[in-house]
Design a protein that fits this description.
two-stranded antiparallel sheet, alpha+beta, SH3 type barrels, elongated
């Protein structure tokens, strides 16, 4: 559902850029079929309004569309600049990345690339917070849990267990990619809090967990 909504919002954004925000134009742009039910859902969530055959963003919808477009075009810029991928390959990968790119990673990519304003195919990249703040240094985004300080938070990006059984055990506790955790203490054990749960793990297990820091 989230992916479908983002695809439609992105298509409306592109249609607005082209000066034709009619439903027909959006349907030509969107990779998925846009139905009347889809539009009713977006209206119900206060993301768009309709004026005849034209579609209009609400402030909430425009902000969400801007975020999707920004992630997509930053990903394209990264793949073109760093990986030197051709247009077809970077477009295909960016279409997947735009739905999953963490805000912290998005800002790090933007900073790394020098806050680009134009993507490789000449389209504008909407600015983000890192652009207006003039950030020039991209700090390490993903760190080992043992590198965090007590009282700081992070979102789990991946778990790299030394033993496969450990991955299942951590998952059973609710520790999976995307979970936001807070490190409470590091001694005598690593104590983390998440989703109303407090869990103590030893250093060996903590070394398996990699997070994107949220408090910098």
């Amino acid at each position: 559902m989230k992916r479908m909504i983002e695809e439609i919002l992105e298509s409306i954004w592109k249609a607005v850029e082209q000066g034709d925000a009619t439903l027909e134009a959006v349907q030509r742009i969107c990779p998925d079929q846009v139905t009347s039910d889809d539009l009713q859902l977006l209206e119900k969530r206060e993301l768009i309004t309709r004026e005849g055959t034209s579609l209009r963003f609400t402030p909430k919808g425009e902000e969400q569309a801007k975020s999707v477009v920004r992630r997509h075009r930053l990903a394209e810029s990264l793949f073109a600049t760093i990986l030197d991928l051709d247009a077809e390959r970077r477009e295909a990968i960016a279409c997947e990345v735009e739905h999953t790119l963490l805000p912290e990673v998005e800002q790090a990519i933007c900073t790394l690339l020098g806050h680009p304003t134009i993507c490789p195919d000449g389209k504008s990249i909407p600015p983000g917070r890192c652009c207006t703040a003039g950030r020039t240094v991209a700090s390490t985004v993903v760190v080992n849990l043992t590198q965090m300080q007590p009282g700081t938070r992070g979102r789990i990006t991946y778990i790299k267990p030394k033993h496969h059984q450990r991955l299942h055990r951590l998952s059973s506790f609710g520790l999976t990619a995307g979970t936001v955790i807070e490190l409470h203490q590091t001694s005598p054990a690593y104590c983390i809090r998440f989703e109303g749960t407090e869990l103590a793990i030893n250093r060996d297990v903590a070394e398996d967990i990699f997070v994107a820091r949220l408090d910098e």
